[in-house]
What we know:
This is VCBS repeat-containing protein. The chain is mostly beta strands.
Amino acid sequence: MNALLAACLIVPLASGAAPAAAARACGGHPLDFDADGRPDLAVAAPYDAARAGSVTVMYGSGEKAKLTQKGAEPGDSFGSALAVGDFNGDRCADLAVGVSEEFAGERVPGGDGNGVVQIFDGSPAGLVAGKELKLVKPSSDRFGASLAAGDLDGDGRDELAVGAPGHRSGGAVTVYGMKGRKAYQITQKTPWVRQGANVTDQWGASLATGDFDGDGRDELAVGAPADSVSKDGQGSVTVIDVRGKRARFLTQSTPGIKGAAEKWDNFGASLATGDFNGDGKADLAIGVPGEGLSANQRAMDYGDGTVDVLYGSRAGLRTDRTEAWSQNTLDGRPRYYDRFGASLAAGDFNGDGNDELAIGVPGEKAVQVLAGRSSGGLTRVGNLLVKGKGQDFGASVAALPGWERYRSLAKRPPVYGLVVAAPDQGIIMYAPGSRRESGRVRLGKVRQLDKGTGLYGYTFG
């Protein structure tokens, strides 16, 4: 499998042995943990070893390393979330690992964990254990159930946002690394957020970052898929300018957003950012996997699913030209158990400079891929329905750049490959992208990349 990783994901920059770690320096590449100029992939298995959890790092060289938590206990769920960013400013990519079910004291049978986050620092020798983050007054917060990295203050260094959807206020997000300030907790009750809060909202269950207005600072999108604004479990997304202390509330009832808010839609269950129209501003894809499209669907059924897309502009995310995607207009057929939009990832699979959107459809054991284009953004033309092995293929997806991304003289946009997991069976699959001057998307043959246990592939970093 190590040889397959090196062959499928990354073409080595040069033949022969890699340079000694001591001779390397970090190059500022966003997915390179070991400074060898190749992107690396982290794969979480939070149910490994009696649910203590583990994370497998697949280095671009073909080497693999298994990360676990010091003092791990059954039930901790190490790997419940992952995020990659340069948190210490040394130009090596670092890895944050959520351990959402760890208890600070005695484990409460059947109770939600307090949660911690373990940082692993990138270095020329690979990832090494760094500091641990935790709340000062832990409760049944599930701190670390979601993570996102981005430059929220414009200082060129990534901050880390940590979701705690079980926080007593209905959910919370804590931001670490903001210039000139300590850890900063935000909830729906924060004065400049000003939202109604219910203990069951799960505010912070999903997170994503992106520069939606092109000002050089990322904004933070916070999903609350169980938010009962006017209907039980309809869901919401809050877009936050952390530095400017501004918040924007989005639901399917927001004017311009297509679709209608219904019970158990779970709007905001998944989030992804990418530049789908190549204008230099991030766009936001919002998964609504509980959306019902089939006739006679019952309450609490899984849902056919849809995905709403909002495009960035100088004024931030626009709601006057949003899109709602479903299998009603794409390859495939919507079914009440498909959960279209349960997972999302963005990456340029054809090298034309515009991101594509990969949409997990685990109920159909598939991933739907929509092409991006400079004129109009995402298009249904040439959309792909990618099938793979595993009962829940598509439950998690990621886009991984090819080796070209890190060549200093590369003049063309990099081509990404699609990584897909069926975590129930612990199967990781990979389909390489290919450069297409036409702007269409064509993925190579889907092949098995790795296999593990304990919900291996639950999430990627």
